[in-house]
Design brief:
fumarase, globular
Amino acid sequence: MKKIITPLDLDTIKSLKAGQELLLNGTIYTARDQAHKRLVEAIKAGKSLPIELKNAVIYYCGPTQTPKNKVIGACGPTTSSRMDDFTPLLLSKGLKAMIGKGARSIEVRVAIKKHKGAYFVTYAGCGALLAKCVKKSKVVAYNDLGPEAILKLEVKDFPLIVAIDANGGSIYG
């Protein structure tokens, strides 16, 4: 499998093809519905964001409570379509890729192609296994959201499949 490292640059993104299996290394951020809503509200209000979006990867995930002596609890992917209303604006502000599960709207597919991004899927139902790929975890924004807070994760060999590539290719047809 091809290994890629964050932050993702344009050459890396352009080299990816729908259906390709990858191992991701580096920094990613978790964010779900409520965090996305706050990010978009901040952008629209002209406020600074709590994370740097340029070339970033957001993982649609709300981890379970962290067990003692672990870095993170189970951290499987959330259904991505719930973030579709927010995604085009975030891509226009520099977001490079998203990780989740399930198909995306036509508007998101168009935005991914326009902004040369990518959408990855990972294995649903395997949150405990995926947690083993997380080497560090830290809340960086919206702590009041509990499991929907934004976490900064350092991952090693996090398994992905390219679901939508920068050219608009898709595993969903």
